What does this fold into?
Amino acid sequence: MGRFGGGRVSERELDFNTSRQNRLFAVQKQIARACRDSGRPVDDVELICVSKTFDANEIRPLLSCGHRLFGENRVQEAQEKWPSLREEFSDIKLHLIGPLQSNKAAEAVAVFDVIETLDRPKIAEAIAREMRAQNRSVQLFIQVNTGAEPQKAGVAPEELSEFLRYCRGPLGLSIQGLMCIPPVDEQASPHFALLRRLAMENGVSCLSMGMSGDFELAIQLGATHVRVGSAIFGRRNGKEAMPTEI
Ligand SMILES: *Cc1c(COP(=O)(O)O)cnc(C)c1O
It folds into this structure.
């Protein structure tokens, strides 16, 4: 149940919910404007609401007003929250945007529709195996470590072509997109531009880039998917320490 306990929705929770819906509408408008300003059709960009650390009761208001695309960064948290929400709302689409360990591949393939954080042969092999075993197909994005940060996940830009060849060839995987998380202390635009260039050079069509602080910039630079959390849900209360960077 919600963090305020019980089945009844408190006044305070109602306020939170309306403001979340309003923030969702505001972000949708900003996306539409950024698309128009860049001469792109407004349906060119998909908004992934990043719901990590927020529970099902906090997510449901966004589902109630029609939003269906969400992102989570931990497999176990997604397993706990989403199966029951999927029973209520059938057409949900869930992206994994956090690091994946190969021993969690089975769970990830079962609970997610898109895995954005493919970044090494062992994970790709485990995913390919699980998709066959479960007779289930998930879309795949490769995470690229555009800032060459040692602590961050992702394929090095210069190793992307070879990794793609391995995924597409021996493993028979099709790769829909590339994803990046620019270094926090740098201008994001060169990273977005690099990701777009890599996608064009390698025949990949989707680009997942841009978060709450920079999704409009990312759209100008070609993003097809933006991952927006705090601009919609509010602050995460330090409940997570950016696990994507560990
Ligand atoms: C948490 C997270 C986001 C959302 O970040 P906000 O700044 O809250 O919009 C986007 N992408 C990844 C990979 C994340 O882990």
